[in-house]
Amino acid sequence: MALRPNVARLRDMLLKSKAVDEFQMKAAMGRLEQWGGRLTGIIVDMGFMDDEAMVKTLSEAMRIPIAHLGMVAKDPQLLARLDAAYCQEHGVFPVSVQNRVVTLAMSDPTEVDAIDYVQSTIGARVHVVGAAVSEIRAAIAKHYRGQDVPSSSLHGAMNRAREADIEAALGQVF
Description:
Elements (H helix, E strand, L loop, with lengths): L4 H12 L5 H14 L3 H7 L5 H12 L13 H5 L3 H7 L1 E7 L2 E6 L5 H11 L2 E6 L2 H13 L5 H23 L1
Helix pairs in contact: 8-9
């Protein structure tokens, strides 16, 4: 299966910055190929990097600012123009719109197709900022679904679930 151009770019960027090693990247790419998903989320979920390290690495490599979404004010008109399912699937969250420029928080700022889609859907230029996967998930839960879930709780729950899966698998082996 051929890699999407943004996945190849992201892979190369993370390897070049030494954020992950070759073995870790091969494991993450195998999981991506088998199960799909987002490479940034897979690397974080597998424990090779934490959310903050991923955001910082991508921010430095792409020279984009980092956004922290915990205190973002809800913009109902902007949220109505971009579907929650799309945001969840692509790891994006529309932060604000001013002077026909949308600030879009992204967990994977190399995904040009998502930027193009948001630009055409909202009818405004897109300014990309980096954000942690857990913060984007929490912002979607809070602003689209009315759930009050701290981003650290989401990430912690995912880590606990992953650890439980590993323990269960080890228990079956021994």
